[in-house]
């Protein structure tokens, strides 16, 4: 580690400096076709199978704007409380990279489709922080380079590179905040909460699935420090492609500590891009961004200006869904949970699943309990997102119903969930196949209780003498004898009944 | 001129036609179409006659970079089969065309006159190519041009210059010198050009042929390799005004693949060409289109043309368009700027030439070596100019100012067209210059487009047609007619009247005065 990598403890950094952040988020839209041609955007296809002369930048090819892309951009702009341009143009951002077919990116420059907005984000303690939005603009994604033969997967040391242009031309919306000031020690949390809120918003609008782990939403964290009381900003670093909520928070935190160390040591911060490392939460130097970097932007002459009719914009505004924060507050009250619990539900990506489970007939507390408990644990263990597990809200609702009817106890229900996740079928099938019904035959249960009392005479005497708490040992024995397939509450009732004790 | 009967055609045994090969190649496109429709000629005979002519004379001219013999004959056979089956034929069915090598042709080489695309076989047809095929126009091959359409002489082609059929030591103009020379040497009755600053009209003027730059957006640019996207416009070239109109109609019209293509009906160009008249029209003469640098014989023939128009019943109106003097300067900022971006894609990664890829060099080095070898001097010059003009700190002074000039020129045209129906001018300040004369003097070369550039900047329509030979050198002079955007039909109405009057005056089309090859 070089000297520049030494860190100042977070609290110490904040005692001296005031962090200023700028967040740039790229969202891949979920349109069926690319931004400027008719190629499919489906993920996972054979490399270069979803290409055409236009997205390969073949000589003579021309772009045509995807109307759904524009509509999605306007929806995002409206949901971020932005003004929508009455007239705007695309621009060419000229730079070279082998995975960019035309060697310019069709983007927007000084005429973004949406600008001057804000997004209110809620901290874990319920406090609202307003993040000002500078702009949201439309652009196209690049292809992907795969560097082969090196140790790191980066271009250095690679023997050759493979290019896949399937992603080239997929619509992107870039959302840029104004400088976020005044967050102080909460800056990392604000960054995370902002990206989380934005992700929820994008999902609610239905314009993208916004899966960060799949690169559908990518965040750049720009950060600088200035001594308390100074107005002008310090030099910023740009940490690129920070692709999870947790990483956004960690990257901001790391950069605050790193900047503080450099500044405390009398050094200067380089304006550079930095890579974030998931393993240890650190960042390392990327490319120096001096002022020589010149994209030679100019209006894209191959496309006509975009001039969304005001009636259309108002129509889109009227059709916006309930915004996530508003919806969350409503659900929180309906479900009767704390801010903190709601935050956990949000972080787990469980809101929509719980809503769907409730809609399928489960009580709110049951729906919440299963998704945030057993299913969250499974998701965590399998490394999958909660909603990527092979179980549906309807199936969870059915399990809850079986528990409510007394056909399953919690322990059995967990086994049913396991069976469903293992692909053994729907809950009823798993119950049948695994023979997981609660033993509700009173005769059989009575016999098991009698046997337990006979085998544990000393305990039985205590209970008869009034030590009701001792009943647990007998319940355990019965449950063991029935291999868990008994309703523990009923077993306890029977024990107390037979021993003439009052529960 | 009848000594070409030793061609393939003499061996073919079909048709009652007694028209010789050389006679066939001297027919107009309309004349050919009529004879094919009536059965006097077959499309195969017509195609073979032109292929034979190409074989006989193109060694001297170098109009074609690639002759698609098999493709052309296959298209011709299909036309003959259609006719035999009684299917209706389009107005240009079976008529051959020479296609500028800037339009993509699926599976047929498309080089744009550059080494950097040597060997590239495009995977797709340009919209214009598709429309030609759909109209059963037979594509003979791809014509020579200044590399990436950057030039006014065709000397910037990576594949050698094209000679002017009027004088083989002189240039045919450019960038579309191959297309115009193919017409003037009877290798094709129709040709396609592209016009960014005059590349259709200037070669037409220098070869005594007709060339039209349609309104920007009138003909799809999809599949036309871009030089300067906001200026480039494909259009028809022919030996007569009517032929140009027929070709114009075949290639024009809205294309959903080109966002800048105009979604409106094609102006009635053929009808206009069949009903030439200037009676009662107001014709503007712009005072900025004369003076220093204009050859005396060019000015003389232009003045005679104005008198001819007056004699035909036109009212002549003097116009002042001061911004036109800035046109050349604005053009040489806008066009290079756009080209610097458009040509960035030629990086040796996906198609065309690749130099130095020996497994040891980086992608960056291979790109640099390929460009060094693959781009000619003029292309490099314009890429550098454009890169500079767009760079931060210079953008406002160069690209930004040029765009303002563009707006002023557009306004001057708008004001002018409040007073007149069309504007006329010389197409070029001089007649064809000797090969090599301006090759090392870019500024002299750029002046060749002085009169044509304002139209590209404003996006309206213009035509060049022959108006006589300059007395001092006996070379053709072009008359330019300029119309407002989407009024392309006016070019043909005026052009047809002027053409008819001149032919009557001369007793024959001007091209008949060209030396035989």
From TrEMBL, chain A:
Its EC number is 6.3.5.-. InterPro entries: Asn/Gln-tRNA_amidoTrfase_suB/E, Asn/Gln-tRNA_Trfase_suB/E_cat, Asn/Gln_amidotransferase, Asn/Gln_tRNA_amidoTrase-B-like, GatB, GatB_Yqey_C_2, Gln-tRNA_amidoTrfase_suB_CS, Gln_synth/guanido_kin_cat_dom. One of its GO terms (molecular function) is asparaginyl-tRNA synthase (glutamine-hydrolyzing) activity. It catalyses: L-aspartyl-tRNA(Asn) + L-glutamine + ATP + H2O = L-asparaginyl-tRNA(Asn) + L-glutamate + ADP + phosphate + 2 H(+); L-glutamyl-tRNA(Gln) + L-glutamine + ATP + H2O = L-glutaminyl-tRNA(Gln) + L-glutamate + ADP + phosphate + H(+). Residues 352-499 form the Asn/Gln amidotransferase domain. GO terms for biological process: glutaminyl-tRNAGln biosynthesis via transamidation; translation. Allows the formation of correctly charged Asn-tRNA(Asn) or Gln-tRNA(Gln) through the transamidation of misacylated Asp-tRNA(Asn) or Glu-tRNA(Gln) in organisms which lack either or both of asparaginyl-tRNA or glutaminyl-tRNA synthetases. The reaction takes place in the presence of glutamine and ATP through an activated phospho-Asp-tRNA(Asn) or phospho-Glu-tRNA(Gln). Belongs to the GatB/GatE family. GatB subfamily. Heterotrimer of A, B and C subunits. PANTHER family: GLUTAMYL-TRNA GLN AMIDOTRANSFERASE SUBUNIT B MITOCHONDRIAL AND PROKARYOTIC PET112-RELATED (PTHR11659), GLUTAMYL-TRNA(GLN) AMIDOTRANSFERASE SUBUNIT B, MITOCHONDRIAL (PTHR11659:SF0). This is Aspartyl/glutamyl-tRNA(Asn/Gln) amidotransferase subunit B.
